[in-house]
Specification:
The protein is α/β, with parallel strands linked by helices. The protein contains 7 helices and 9 strands, in the order βαβαβαβαβαβααβββ. Its EC number is 6.3.1.14.
C-alpha cells in the first residue's frame, strides 16, 4: 500500500516506517504537526514537539515530500476514548492535514499509548485509511534491541525521569543508553522505550535515509525543571545540516 508516515523525528515513528517497508509497503510521503514557530516544546498529549526544527532535513534525507501543519488545537478531552470529532481538539489538526491527500494507509509509531492510538484510529476510520502500527504493544526491551540492531541512530533529545540527568544523558545514542535504560528499568521500573514520558529521541540516521544523514551543528540544553530527583531538560536544535553517509 501507499503509506503516509506520521513522524515526530523520533525512534518510534522511524522504526515503524522501517517495518512498513519490510512488510512490503511503500512510504510515499511524511506528515508532521509542529508547534508555533516561537515555541520549542508544546505540552501536547498527542505530538512530540522537541526536535521539530530538523523535520525538513528528515524528509530531505528520505527524499520524500513532507506534509506539515501547525498544531492549533489542544486536548479538549483527555478521555482514553475518542469516538467523535471535538471542535478545537489537536486531533482535528491531524484530520485536516491528512484529508488533503490521496493515500491508502498511515504509519503510526505508537507502542503502548491507547490515548494516541485511539485518536489516530478515529482519524483514519473517518478518512477510510488503514492504520499500520507494527510496533504496537511490542515488548519494549526486545523493541529497543531491534531498533539498535537495525542501525537506527537516534539520540536522547529530552529526559524526564528518575535516574536520567539532562546534562549527562542528552545527546547520547540509543546504543550508548541501552545498558543505562535496562538498569533503570530494573531499579525503578521505567519504560526502556520511553513510553511513560521518560525520554524522547531524535533520529539522525537510519536505513531509510537515502544518501545523507543529519548532523547537529549547534544545540542548546534547556532545563525546564531542576528537580533533585527527576530533572527535566531538552536539546534545542539551533543549527543542523545534511552530510553524505
Amino acid at each position: 500500500m501507499h503509506v503516509v508516515a506520521l513522524i515526530s523525528g523520533g525512534k518510534d515513528s522511524t522504526y515503524n516506517m522501517i517495518e512498513c517497508v519490510r512488510h512490503g509497503h511503500e512510504i510515499v510521503a511524511l506528515a508532521n504537526l509542529h508547534p508555533n514557530k516561537d515555541i520549542d516544546e508544546l505540552d501536547s498529549y498527542m505530538y512530540q514537539s522537541v526536535g521539530h526544527e530538523i523535520i525538513d532535513l528528515f524528509a530531505k534525507a528520505m527524499e520524500l515530500p513532507l506534509y506539515r501543519a501547525e498544531i492549533k488545537g489542544d486536548a479538549q478531552t483527555t478521555n482514553k476514548e475518542y469516538n467523535h470529532p471535538v471542535d478545537g481538539d489537536e486531533v482535528e489538526d491531524l484530520y485536516e492535514l491528512l484529508e488533503k491527500h490521496t493515500i491508502e494507509a498511515v504509519s503510526v509509531g505508537a507502542i503502548f499509548s491507547e490515548y494516541q492510538n485511539n485518536r489516530v484510529a478515529n482519524v483514519c476510520q473517518r478518512l477510510n485509511l488503514q492504520v499500520l502500527a507494527y510496533i504496537w504493544q511490542r515488548n519494549q526491551h526486545e523493541l529497543l534491541n531491534e531498533m539498535i540492531e537495525s542501525n537506527v541512530e537516534a539520540i536522547l533529545i529530552k529526559t524526564a525521569a528518575l535516574g536520567l540527568q539532562p546534562k549527562q544523558h542528552l545527546g547520547k545514542t540509543l546504543a550508548e543508553m541501552r545498558p543505562i535504560l535496562f538498569q533503570l528499568a530494573e531499579k525503578y521500573g521505567i519504560n526502556v522505550c520511553g513510553e511513560g514520558g521518560e525520554f524522547e529521541t531524535l533520529t539522525l540516521d537510519c536505513s531509510l535515509f537515502k544518501h545523507q544523514r543529519i548532523v547537529l551543528d549547534q544545540v542548546k540544553t534547556i532545563i525546564t525543571s531542576s528537580d533533585s530527583i527527576a530533572p527535566v531538560g531538552y536539546l534545542k536544535v539551533e543549527k543542523a545540516h545534511l552530510e553524505p553517509k
